[in-house]
Amino acid sequence: MGYTIAEKILARASGQKTVRAGDELRVRPDFVIAYDFPGYTDVIFRQMEDEFGIERVADPQRFALFIDHMVPATTTQEEELHEITRSWGAKNDVPVYEGKGIGHQVAAELGYATPGAFVLHFDGHISQLGTFGTLAIGVRRHLLEAFVKERIKFKVPETTRIDLTGRLQPGVTARDVFHHIVRVLGPRACRGTVMELGGDAISAMSLESRQTITCLAMFTGAITAIINPDEKALDYIRPRQRLDIAPLSSDPDAVYAARHTIDVTALEPVAVIPPSPANTRDLSEVAGTEVQVGYLGSCASGRVEDLALAADVLEGRKVKDGFKLYVIPTSKEIMEKAAEQGILTRLIAAGAFVSSSSCDYCFGRMGVMRTGQRAVSTGTLNVRGRMGSPDSEIFIVNAAAVAAAAIEGRITDPRPYLTGAGHGA
Amino acid sequence: MALENLCGRVAWIFEDEDFDVDQIVGVKNIKIKDPAELGRLCLSAEDPDFAQKVMPGDLLIGNHNFGYGHPHYPPMIGMRHLGIAGVIAESFAPGYWRGEIAMGFPQVVCPGILGAVSRWDEIEVDWAAGRLRNITTKTELPIEPLSEGDRQMLEAGGIVGYLHARDREEAET
């Protein structure tokens, strides 16, 4: 029997010829990544020195730090935390990336998403590096092991294979596809396993769309997501990749914990109903719900195609009076592309508030809601209080639906706006 | 070093599948750091006297995929402050599991647990025997074994102790 891409990557990273799901290994992560956040990086830096006497990491280029939360700083404590990160990076020769955008996206732009590499972070949304055939896992405070030891103990996970077939209708995006997977297979369909995606619908998708889906893997219970790298992925990442290793792919006869096939042809725009990421419905079921805030951004969505789609919906129209539409491109590189293509100009003309990349709108540090308000959002999560008051609500929808709601002040199907048959347009 | 058995009363049963642990203290309190304050907030919306009723060693019971979502540490920091000694569930969300094991907080997978206990039953987790015993009802269920890494992490009381143990192990070899 053959091997999954996850098994092959962990075999490579542990120096073994082959490994199987269930094996407990000592694995050397190719890259160890973190963003600075109180209780994580500051604690790790302190414990390394106080508990383990490590004043400098042995191989600084294996590490990368991002400053993307609490950007820009609004308190002196936040700025002091960033300074701890900068000075630790300088002392250790570890690169600290600041002002470049959300780290999970920038890690791809900077080539940490090397196909065949094994990457650790504390945050699970690093799973999106799987778009490029990288096995990237968020291990929370267990990350300390990778800062203290060259190798970590790691149990090879099983893999759940999901094939997406068929063709998406206009106005239906990868964001809808991911939440549809949760709706069809359930919030624990991939629990404890790697979600491996394939099929002709994945092949047809842009890399940005694949990043959206792999980013959100945790809401299927998966520990990460991965896609066997095709030419589209390799063409993007080859000039950027940081390690000279051969890409790996699952064997046709690889052993999976389960296999599922989902046809996306008939899929309509969805809405994820508060307060759970497990609660996917057709958007039409909540159409008409009044909303006052829109957020287009995050590590899941907010890339060029999302911004362009929203600009298309808003073309020649205005954000409704009193509605707050926050558009925060996922990275500086994406923001520059969107500016070059005139997308930002169109969004600004329609009345969007457009700002430089930051994680802060996703977790209620910026653009917060008061009691009783409702948002449409492309952020990662819709739990109670995520974007402000515990008595505010978040409906997760695709980028086009955020823009359509901004026009009408209520949740609405964005597709008529894209075909020129907009309601009251 | 062997893991000590968990022995205590069922202090709470989380009946919801895919339970988001942040709800234990409420999302609005998730940035609180003081363990005593977090302890007072634990389940206070569901049972205002919860903090007073808990005794050291008591245990929590969860349904499938316990810890789903974006789990944060404060709820279980509060629970540990009250003396809660571990969580036993039908199954766990992997991010929650890994995070709490790294804190040295015992988590036990026990298929069938939800139908096998009532609140305040006396139960025991016998790691060596691989059994969960309900002392009150005199029934028992098998528990799933821990991986070697998770067992070592719990034996060492969490990630820092575990890494010191690795240091000692590597110095000997």
Provide an overview of this structure.
The complex is a heterodimer of chains A (425) and B (173). Chain A has 425 residues and is of the alpha/beta class. Chain A is built from 14 helices and 18 strands. Chain A has helices at residues 5-14, 41-50, 76-92, 103-109, 144-148, 174-185, 200-204, 207-215, 231-237, 304-314, 332-340, 343-350, 399-408, 415-418, and strands spanning 24-27, 31-35, 63-67, 96-98, 118-121, 135-138, 152-155, 159-165, 194-198, 224-227, 258-263, 270-272, 280-282, 293-297, 324-328, 353-354, 374-377, 393-396. In chain A, the strands form 5 sheets. A 5-stranded parallel β-sheet of chain A has the order 4-3-2-5-6. A 5-stranded parallel β-sheet of chain A has the order 16-15-14-17-18, covered by helices on one side. A 4-stranded parallel β-sheet of chain A has the order 10-9-8-11. The termini of chain A are far apart. Chain B is α/β, with parallel strands linked by helices. Chain B has a single domain (6-145), classed as Aconitase, domain 4.
Present the secondary structure layout:
The complex is a heterodimer of chains A (about 425) and B (about 170).
Chain A lengths: L4 H10 L9 E4 L3 E5 L5 H10 L12 E5 L8 H17 L3 E3 L4 H7 L8 E4 L13 E4 L5 H5 L3 E4 L3 E7 L8 H12 L8 E5 L1 H5 L2 H9 L8 E4 L3 H7 L20 E6 L6 E3 L7 E3 L10 E5 L6 H11 L9 E5 L3 H9 L2 H8 L2 E2 L19 E4 L15 E4 L2 H10 L6 H4 L7
Parallel strand pairs in A: 2-3, 2-5, 3-4, 5-6, 8-9, 8-11, 9-10, 14-15, 14-17, 15-16, 17-18
Antiparallel strand pairs in A: 1-7, 12-13
Helix pairs in contact in A: 6-8, 10-12, 10-13
Chain B lengths: L5 E8 L21 H7 L8 H4 L5 E4 L11 H9 L3 E4 L4 H9 L4 E3 L12 E5 L4 E4 L4 E4 L5 H8 L3 H14 L1
Parallel strand pairs in B: 1-2, 2-3, 3-4
Antiparallel strand pairs in B: 1-5, 5-6, 6-7
